[in-house]
Write a structure and sequence with these properties.
InterPro entries: ARM-like, ARM-type_fold, SAPS. By secondary structure, the protein is mainly alpha-helical. It is about 55% helix and about 0% strand. A hairpin with a 3-residue loop joins strand 1 (about 300) and strand 2.
């Protein structure tokens, strides 16, 4: 078990098996907790598994196929558990394996040609070998160095992905391997492992073999030791690679994966010798772009391709041109490669992979510092004229002599490279601002000037997302802004008043009537806990703005929120007792008549006579001097008429605004005053 606590843990089933006098390895392998016990370093179990007979039997489960009449657990469970025991990385078990040469022979016997190589057992074999590479690197490398046939056997089984992974790590083409064993890998420099791998393009017809061979070679260009990396970039190796790629009657997978290795050699580093080796075979490669003699046909949804085109060659030309090699640029111009790929751009209007690479080629030429490239694209390749010609016929034409033919009886589809042509046209205009050659060429073409004015500018305006008025996206630079924000800003909101209302609402728990006690408790918090700034108000209003559409008005207006139940209060308005007096108050609260009801003014404040509070003598005298009527809670402005006259004339004259002020003693805080205001309002509405 992982955790053993005295008195709490139960006996392990593994220990129960080990307690038997006569038990077999299969009994332990059939127990579910054996892997947990290995990781927990169960002493009795480890001492049993480290013995040579047990290690040998575990290896046989991994490298030997089960008989046809064997049970399922012998075919599937036992090999899996045996592999997991080794990959638990118990040092004493791994040491028992690598220090016994016969056991190592048994392990690598899986690679022998006369041995069966199922993908299931190959996966278990690779996991054990990779574990030894990580934990017992020196011993494993010494064994492989003493048995060089292992390398050739691994290359022969390169079509199995698990074996390919072993080979990648064994030759040091993995960034996490052999950081401290660089010297141990020098022996690989004297082997012909690279030649054996590249020859698999010629000796095998299986696409998976070609794909895995290319993956190993690409990994070598990125992570292999310097000696191997320099060897793979040599002109002789590149020539050998191209020879296999251009070999007649070979599967297309050979060409595709061979060129993927060449692209890996060019990107991201520039090897002059490598480029020179490629240029020698470039002419034969470009001949493959001539599809006029091909007879294969591929049906599509829009018609048919006769023949389909592999864009890997165009991708290789794009990468070769991007490294800035003058020799490569000259050779590409001389062989007519640029003119041919631009023609393919228009001959295959639905091959987006092709369009992407051709666009990169054209942009690389136009951005080049060599005028010969720019003039070649503008004049010899006539990129501007081809764009204008394609714009005149934006639908697929029914021409059986072209590689792309549309279906009969259907409306012709719009060609699929209009977007790339638009970007190329805009790129020409952009580069023309700083390049006289491009600018002169465009200005001298009257047809281009007309198309630019009447078509391109309007198309750019339509496709400019910054001018879209549908609401999304309004701006790519302002992800947080949407149509709701714009609508909110158009409303006549007083954000300062809204922020104040929001602060009061959330402070007094208006939106949580089920837990009023908790809301009252929140009053004790600091002002920072309930403060709403303008931005917070905008966010809440934007998310709850649907209330504006409801009858009876919205809570999110400039009126005070505490009057939102005015209709209900008007129906059952009555004189009731006020809330309990403040603890600082000395007496009971007086009753309030109709003249003292709350009056809402334009200042959006709640005005009323709250519970009485003791007032200082100085304040009282000041109020009397000003002509105010002094009440127990502080000075109140004297009304023009007495309360009876004011009550009788209520229907004729609206009450004047009553201002509520009070003197705070040393023990009363503004929070307490606002609390009393809420209590007064609650009592009035109820």
């Amino acid at each position: 078990m992982f955790w053993r606590m005295t008195g709490l843990s139960t006996a392990s089933p593994v220990d129960a098996i080990l307690d038997k006098e006569n038990f077999k390895l299969e009994e332990l392998l059939d127990e579910d907790e054996i892997i947990q016990e290995c990781k927990a370093l169960n002493t009795r179990l480890i001492n049993f598994l480290r013995d040579r007979p047990q290690v040998e039997q575990l290896l046989r489960y991994i490298v030997e196929e089960a008989p046809d009449d064997a049970e399922k657990k012998r075919t599937f469970r036992f090999p899996f558990i045996a592999c997991e025991i080794f990959t638990c990385e118990v040092d004493i078990i791994l040491r028992a394996l690598v220090e016994d040469e016969e056991l190592m022979h048994l392990l690598f016997s899986f690679l022998k040609p006369d041995h069966s190589h199922s993908t299931l057992l190959a996966g278990y074999f690779s996991k054990v070998v990779i574990c030894l590479m990580l934990r017992k690197t020196g011993q494993l490398v010494n064994y492989v160095q003493g048995h060089p046939e292992i390398i050739s056997q691994l290359v022969d089984l390169i079509g199995i992905t698990s074996i390919m992974e072993v080979l990648i790590r064994l030759i040091g083409a993995d960034e996490s391997m052999y950081s401290n064993y660089a010297e141990a890998m020098q022996w690989l420099e004297d082997t012909n492992v690279l030649e054996m791998i590249v020859d698999k393009f010629s000796s095998s017809d299986y696409p998976e073999v070609h794909a895995n061979a290319a993956e190993i070679l690409c990994a070598i260009t990125r992570y292999a030791p310097p000696a191997l990396a320099a060897k793979i970039c040599s002109p002789s190796f590149v020539e050998r690679l191209f020879r296999h790629a251009l070999e007649d009657s070979r599967p297309k997978s050979v060409l595709v994966h061979s060129l993927s290795v060449c692209i890996s050699l060019l990107d991201p580093r520039d090897y002059p010798e490598t480029v020179d080796g490629m240029l020698e075979s470039l002419g034969g490669l470009l001949k493959l772009l001539d599809v006029s003699s091909a007879d294969s046909i591929l049906p599509t949804t829009y018609g048919k391709l006769q023949p389909p085109l592999e864009s890997i060659i165009v991708e290789f030309i794009s990468v070769l041109l991007s490294i800035g090699s003058e020799a490569a640029e000259t050779q590409l111009i001389r062989l007519g490669a640029l003119r041919r790929v631009i023609d393919l751009f228009f001959e295959y209007p639905f091959n987006n992979f092709l369009h992407h690479h051709v666009e990169n080629i054209i942009v690389s030429c136009l951005e080049s510092k060599r005028n010969v490239l720019i003039e070649h694209v503008l004049n010899d390749c006539n990129i501007v004229g081809k764009i204008l010609e394609a714009e005149k016929q934006p639908t697929l034409q029914s021409d059986s002599t072209k590689p792309t033919v549309r279906s009969e009886g259907k409306s012709p589809p719009r060609i699929g490279n209009v977007g790339h042509m638009t970007r190329l046209a805009n790129k020409l205009i952009q580069l023309g601002n700083n390049n006289c050659t491009i600018l002169t060429h465009l200005q001298q073409n009257s047809e281009w000037v007309d198309w630019h004015t009447n078509v391109l500018l309007k198309r750019n305006a339509v496709e400019n997302v910054y001018q879209w008025t549908c609401g999304r996206p309004t701006s790519l630079q302002d992800r947080g802004k949407d149509s709701d924000d714009e609508d909110f800003r158009d409303r006549d909101y007083d954000v300062a008043a809204l922020a104040n209302n929001l602060s009061q609402a959330f402070r007094y728990g208006i939106y949580n009537n089920d837990d009023f006690g908790e809301a009252q408790g929140s009053i004790e918090r600091d002002d920072e806990d309930v403060y709403f700034d303008d931005e917070s108000a905008e966010v809440v209003i934007s998310s709850l703005r649907l209330g504006d559409d409801q009858e009876g008005g919205s809570l999110f207006t400039n009126s005070n929120w505490f009057a939102f139940e005015e209709d209900r209060a008007a129906n059952d308005r009555s004189i009731g007792s006020l809330a309990s007096p403040s603890p600082n108050s000395g007496g009971t609260s007086p009753s309030i008549d109709e003249a003292d009801e709350i009056v809402l003014g334009q200042s959006d404040k709640v005005v009323a006579t709250p519970a009485p509070l003791p007032a200082s003598d100085s304040e009282t005298s000041q109020g009397a001097a000003a002509g105010d009527t002094a009440l127990p809670n502080g000075p109140v402005e004297e009304l023009e008429e007495d309360s009876r006259q004011s009550s009788s004339n209520t229907d004729e004259k609206p009450p004047e605004q009553v201002e509520w002020r009070e003197e705070l003693d040393s023990g009363t805080s503004p929070e307490t005053v606002r609390t009393r205001s809420l209590m007064f309002e609650t009592a009035r509405l109820n």
